[in-house]
Write a structure and sequence with these properties.
The structure holds two protein chains of two kinds. In chain A, strand 3 and strand 4 form a beta hairpin. Chain A has a four-stranded mixed sheet with strand order 2-1-3-4. By secondary structure, chain A is an alpha+beta fold. Chain A has one domain: Glutaredoxin (3-Layer(aba) Sandwich). Chain A contains five helices and four strands, in the order H-E-H-E-H-E-E-H-H. Chain B has helices spanning 5-15, 47-57, and strands at residues 20-25, 32-38, 68-74. Chain B is an alpha+beta fold. Chain B has a three-stranded mixed sheet. Chain B is built from two helices and three strands; from the N terminus they run αββαβ. Classes of the chains: A alpha+beta, B alpha+beta. The interface between A and B is medium-sized, with 15 and 12 residues.
């Protein structure tokens, strides 16, 4: 992977506590899986940065190598790779996602 | 850019012989699958590691020939 892409990814992860590498943008996702994760974060009112990998083919390939993960979306919370769509869906449904957010001191909307 | 259901099952079986695998072709297009994999080799591993094991068994096909495979892993 070229150094420039590696630095770009590292910078995004460092500058954004919750960083979602996705196809499209949170407002206009270009893939159902990216939309699903983006929507979970929106429902929980988590402030996150969406990085559109479709804007740069090198980034699209680079993030797969960076995380050693073959698919997109990919979610990072406080520099830690949390997973892709399947894992996030499971975590959302079984309550592990809110526990993780709590544990990492990320603001989100708690259910009343 | 499509992959046969049996081929997916075969590849997973090769790297995890004890695995129980249920695969569904979600859209009927040979491109969007969902797989539930149950294997004792997942024990003590994180979800990320478990999913990586399944991805690895597909030998780089995931994200290429195989566009979408939703994975659920169970110990």
């Amino acid at each position: 992977m070229n150094q420039q892409i590696n630095d770009l990814i590292s910078k995004e992860i460092e500058n954004n506590e919750v960083c979602l590498f996705m196809k499209g943008t949170p407002d206009a996702p270009q893939c159902g899986f990216s939309m699903a994760v983006s929507n979970m974060l929106k429902i929980l009112e988590v402030n996150f940065k969406g990085v559109n990998v479709l804007e740069d083919e090198k980034l699209r390939q680079g993030i797969k190598e960076f995380s050693d993960w073959p698919t997109i979306p990919q979610l990072y919370i406080k520099k830690e790779f949390v997973g892709g769509c399947d894992i996030l869906k499971e975590m959302y449904e079984n309550g592990e996602l809110t526990k993780l957010l709590e544990g990492k001191n990320i603001n989100f909307k708690k259910k009343n | 850019m499509a992959m046969d259901l049996n081929e997916i099952e075969k590849l997973i079986k090769e790297s995890m012989p004890d695995a129980k695998i249920e695969i569904q072709d979600l859209a009927g297009d040979g491109n969007h699958y969902s797989a539930t994999v149950t294997s004792s080799t997942f024990a003590g591993k994180s979800k990320i590691e478990q999913h990586k094991m399944v991805y690895n068994s597909l030998k780089g096909k995931m994200g290429n020939e195989l566009h979408a495979l939703a994975i659920k892993t169970k110990e």
